[in-house]
């Protein structure tokens, strides 16, 4: 963990969803919901910061009753004004490198998901893809290769699914290609690897939202559980890792909360924002 932070009044709360504010089944516990409502009553602005596509974040926005504000989606590749879901910042992958990376992923036996406009394109009808669609509560469009990379506009991001060894092997080969194109590769889930536009990340997006709101980093509380949460945990004045997070994520945090099944996000909000 980082050095102990000084007591400060939290003005902005950034919450990851899956594995943090919501369980891995996509459900928000009553305690987490109550903690968010209590923080808002004390004047704390709440931002949801998720790897999910915007359409999949909107139900949570309504569930938390957040009203007007900003939402971070696609792991920071989009910031949207809510509740109208109007993008104010948006980045896309360059088409040629994205196509090469998608082709290599299919060749490696991975399930490829391309986020094209407001649609989710899927490379094959696979049980993992079906589970993703069910948990995220969004429709998917089956686009077997080569139709998958015939996108009319470049995708916002790619999400690749596979077992740990397959993802690790693909990542070792893909990272030099991604780096040469200025792209980012992050792990967002034990079975998900994501390719993002350069400069896109939850930390960069959270900094942009805070700047729009006139809130300094020292007054920001960010809570997350995965590699894709690292940059916002490091950027925030108070960065909290969930108890089930990887060691590298816990090491980057100022404080480690209990795991998601023990309502760790609520415990963190109660500890730092109330």
UniProtKB/TrEMBL annotation:
<dbReference type="GO" id="GO:0050308">
    <property type="term" value="F:sugar-phosphatase activity"/>
</dbReference>
<dbReference type="GO" id="GO:0000287">
    <property type="term" value="F:magnesium ion binding"/>
</dbReference>
<protein>
    <submittedName>
        <fullName>Putative Sugar phosphatase YidA</fullName>
        <ecNumber>3.1.3.23</ecNumber>
    </submittedName>
</protein>
<keyword id="KW-0378">Hydrolase</keyword>
<dbReference type="Pfam" id="PF08282">
    <property type="entry name" value="Hydrolase_3"/>
</dbReference>
<dbReference type="GO" id="GO:0005829">
    <property type="term" value="C:cytosol"/>
</dbReference>
<dbReference type="InterPro" id="IPR036412">
    <property type="entry name" value="HAD-like_sf"/>
</dbReference>
<dbReference type="InterPro" id="IPR006379">
    <property type="entry name" value="HAD-SF_hydro_IIB"/>
</dbReference>
<dbReference type="InterPro" id="IPR023214">
    <property type="entry name" value="HAD_sf"/>
</dbReference>
């Amino acid at each position: 963990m980082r050095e102990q932070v000084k007591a400060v009044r939290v003005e902005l709360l950034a919450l990851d969803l899956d594995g943090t504010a919501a369980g891995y089944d996509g459900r928000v516990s009553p305690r987490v919901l109550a903690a968010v409502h209590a923080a808002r009553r004390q004047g704390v602005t709440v931002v949801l910061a998720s790897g999910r596509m915007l359409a999949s974040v909107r139900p949570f926005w309504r569930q938390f009753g957040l009203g007007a504000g900003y939402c971070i989606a696609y792991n920071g590749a989009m910031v949207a004004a809510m509740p109208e879901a109007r993008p104010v910042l948006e980045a896309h992958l360059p088409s040629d490198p994205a196509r090469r990376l998608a082709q290599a992923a299919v060749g490696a036996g991975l399930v490829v998901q391309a986020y094209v406009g407001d649609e989710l394109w899927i490379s094959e009808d696979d049980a993992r893809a079906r589970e993703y669609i069910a948990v995220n509560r969004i429709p998917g469009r089956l686009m077997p290769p080569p139709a998958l990379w015939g996108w009319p506009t470049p995708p916002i991001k790619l999400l690749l699914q596979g077992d740990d060894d397959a993802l690790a092997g693909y990542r070792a080969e893909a990272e030099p290609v991604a780096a040469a194109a200025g792209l980012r590769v992050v792990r967002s889930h034990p079975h998900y690897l994501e390719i993002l536009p350069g400069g896109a990340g939850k930390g960069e997006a959270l900094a942009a939202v805070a700047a729009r709101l006139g809130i300094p980093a020292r007054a920001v509380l960010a809570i997350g559980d995965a590699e894709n949460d690292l940059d916002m945990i490091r950027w925030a004045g108070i960065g909290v890792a969930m108890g089930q997070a990887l060691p590298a994520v816990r090491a980057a945090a100022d404080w480690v909360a209990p795991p998601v099944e023990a309502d760790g996000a609520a415990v963190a909000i109660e500890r730092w924002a109330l």
